[in-house]
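Example S7 (structure tokens).
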């Protein structure tokens, strides 16, 4: 027999390899299902802006202005979710804050005040809220985002 010739595969070897691959695929799907659901699943999370107080009284209550206090209606199956809010004015980073939306979060405050020293009053700002959780290694795992404009 030539040293480069492969031995023929037997039907038994092929069947065992197919069964092994099937077991791995089913195990992966079973283990990933609950983990994905616990971490928000496929788009199972939502994040909606709620204006708590407005510094400017307007007819449209959806208008957000500099100095307003806002929070978010958070819906997720993730354990210990956080909301991070970042705002920019004409591309300049002006605001960054985080709040935990779970029982036992170390701070009582669960809202954001849209103001900071670099925030220029009288100019609009673009803000993006990120709903996320931290994995065991401390990495942020993004669930969903929500963007809004802060009126001047």
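Recovered sequence:
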């Amino acid at each position: 027999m030539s040293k480069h010739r492969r031995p023929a595969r037997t039907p038994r070897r092929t069947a065992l390899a197919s069964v092994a691959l099937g077991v791995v695929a089913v195990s992966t799907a079973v283990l990933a299902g609950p983990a994905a659901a616990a971490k928000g699943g496929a788009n199972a999370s939502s994040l909606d802006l709620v204006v708590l107080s407005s510094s400017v009284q307007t007819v449209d209550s959806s208008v957000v202005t500099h100095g307003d206090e806002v929070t978010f209606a958070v819906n997720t199956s993730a354990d210990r979710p956080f909301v991070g809010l970042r705002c920019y004015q004409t591309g300049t980073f002006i605001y960054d804050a985080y709040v935990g939306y779970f029982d036992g979060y170390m701070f009582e405050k669960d809202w954001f005040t849209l103001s900071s020293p670099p925030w220029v009053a009288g100019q609009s700002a673009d803000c993006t809220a990120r709903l996320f959780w931290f994995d065991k290694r401390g990495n942020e795992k993004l669930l969903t985002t929500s963007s809004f404009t802060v009126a001047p």
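Notes on this example. The chain has two domains: 9-38, 46-151.
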